[in-house]
Amino acid sequence: MTSKLKNPKVLISQSRANKKVKELARKISRNYKGKKLVLVGVLKGAFVFMADLLREITIPLEIDFIQVSSYGASKTSSGVIKIKKDIDLPIVGKNVLLVEDIIDYGYTLDYLIRFLKAKKAKSVGVCVMLDKPARRRVEVPLAYKGFEVPDKFMVGYGLDFAEKFRNLPYVGCLSS
Ligand code: IMP
Ligand code: MG
Predict the structure, then answer these.
(1) I need a labelling partner for 33 at 20 to 30 A (CA). Which of 112, 124, 151, 153 fits?
(2) Does the beta carbon of 153 lie inside 6 Å of ligand 1?
(3) Strands of 171-174's sheet in order across
């Protein structure tokens, strides 16, 4: 491992991330007040963001997780999405908010929105921590989004490169 890989450059500090999470949670609490809300986190990357976000949301909610095929140890998407772990909760007539770490090409969220709508959710919205718009291939409506990031590989705050760096408390980027 090179030294560059050992010390990703800090892009979004822990305190900036925390502030943004609070802001997003406030909006979500306001917009879903009185509605049946289910947060669906996309494993594994979203688990840190999800854990922080849900503790700032002040309205009742249910949570579940879904997992799709990932990039593996590569930095680019194959565009072929497969469900590895489906949700367990029934979502018929409920308002689903997909919680995701990052959107890049957009294939993953586009697929998941359609997948969950097919289960007859009342609505399917998206809350994403990081938006990397440079390489978008499919348009995905992002109701709640944290930060726009440059076309670099992000790690930390749940995001990995080959399963490393998920435990960094900040968002960093790899410079290669
Ligand atoms: P998309 O289908 O290209 O939008 O890919 C989104 C998924 O790819 C995310 O759920 C991440 O798991 C992964 N991903 C995309 N960009 C990055 C990155 O910069 N760092 C880590 N994972 C990423
Ligand atoms: Mg992911």
Answers:
(1) 112
(2) yes
(3) 9-12, 171-174, 153-155
pLDDT digits (tens, 9 = 90+) for 28-64: 999 999 999 999 999 999 999 999 999 999 999 999 9
Q: How far apart are the CA of 141 and the centre of ligand 2, in A?
A: 17
Q: Is 105 in the pocket of ligand 1 (CB under 6 A)?
A: yes
- Residues 82-90: contacts with CB within 8 Å, 24+ apart? 83/115, 85/43, 87/40, 87/116, 87/119, 88/64, 89/38, 89/62, 89/64
pLDDT tens for 108-131 read: 999 999 999 999 999 999 999 999
**DSSP alpha helix (H) spans, the chain:** 3-6, 14-31, 47-54, 107-117
CB-ligand 1 contact for 108 (6 Å cutoff): yes
Catalytic (active-site) positions: 104
